[in-house]
């Protein structure tokens, strides 16, 4: 069933994502009223009506397209953490972040996106990264490459001797222990900076505009779409335990993502505290 779906129904997924953004996200961009923005765990962890309604829209449309599938969405998991367990089940799972970069969205910055990935038994099969305010849609299908607005992309490799550009977990969302790990990237030859929307940072790596990422949190909705996108563009990733990050298990953190394997390994070893 899943093979047939991947072969024939992916355009319908793209249409569903575009419709959800057009109906629930873009009408609220730079139009949010105070009552449409709430805090979750703290003042920097925001949720808006656009997040909630877009996830509801996508949950209905995606499960209609693939009967029997489950949805692990950021807002659903916030309401009921048990929902996350579907990643370890036998049904196909849609992994949804309705507005990745909510802080940017609230501030009127166009650098936010909707992230959707389809997984089965922990393997990410297809992904969509849609930045509606930028008119950018990045897609990836396992074994079929990565594309942006229909054009094939390749991550390439950093220029020999050039400073590595690394986006890291933002200080607003990191613990003291996280910051100790990330401080190991403050070395000659590496230029770290705080990340914005995780989905768009993955896209930058897939396009060769950034060299690497270093993340300290495991939420599948932030990483699933981007991990497949980077992997299909030619990149690589690894946790500090020197094994790949997977969405269906607990992972050692932080983990590194690179334009190529050598870059991912270099960043990973720095995070481990090794040369």
From TrEMBL:
Entry EC no(s): 3.1.3.25
Keywords carried by this UniProt record: Magnesium, Metal-binding
EC class of the enzyme, as a word: hydrolase
PANTHER family, per database record: INOSITOL MONOPHOSPHATASE (PTHR20854), INOSITOL-1-MONOPHOSPHATASE-RELATED (PTHR20854:SF4)
Gene3D superfamilies, A to Z: 3.40.190.80, Fructose-1,6-Bisphosphatase, subunit A, domain 1
Source domain of life: Bacteria
Reaction(s) this enzyme catalyzes, per UniProt: a myo-inositol phosphate + H2O = myo-inositol + phosphate
Pfam families in UniProt: Inositol_P
Name by which UniProt lists this protein: inositol-phosphate phosphatase
């Amino acid at each position: 069933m899943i093979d047939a779906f991947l072969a024939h129904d992916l355009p319908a997924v793209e249409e569903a994502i575009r419709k959800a953004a057009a109906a629930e996200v873009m009408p609220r961009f730079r139009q949010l009223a105070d009552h449409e923005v709430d805090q979750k765990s703290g003042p920097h962890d925001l949720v808006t009506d656009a997040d909630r309604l877009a996830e509801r829209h996508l949950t209905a449309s995606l499960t209609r397209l693939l009967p029997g599938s489950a949805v692990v969405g950021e807002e659903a998991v916030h309401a009921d953490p048990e929902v996350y367990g579907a990643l370890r089940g036998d049904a196909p799972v849609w992994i949804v972040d309705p507005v990745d970069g909510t802080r940017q969205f609230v501030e009127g910055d166009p650098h936010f996106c909707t992230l959707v990935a389809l997984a089965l038994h922990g393997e990410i099969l297809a992904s969509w990264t849609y930045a509606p305010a930028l008119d950018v849609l990045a897609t990836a299908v396992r074994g079929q490459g990565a594309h942006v607005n229909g054009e094939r992309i390749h991550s390439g490799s950093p220029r020999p001797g050039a400073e590595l550009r690394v986006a890291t977990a933002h200080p607003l969302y990191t613990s003291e222990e996280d910051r100790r790990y990330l401080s190991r990237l403050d070395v000659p030859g590496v230029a770290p900076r705080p990340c914005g929307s995780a989905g768009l940072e993955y896209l930058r790596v897939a396009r060769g505009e950034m060299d690497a990422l270093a993340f300290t949190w495991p939420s599948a909705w932030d990483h699933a779409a981007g991990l497949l996108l980077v992997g299909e563009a030619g990149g690589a990733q690894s946790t500090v335990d020197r094994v790949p990050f997977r969405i269906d298990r607990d992972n050692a953190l932080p983990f590194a993502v690179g334009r190529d394997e050598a870059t991912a390994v270099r960043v990973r070893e720095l995070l481990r505290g090794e040369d």
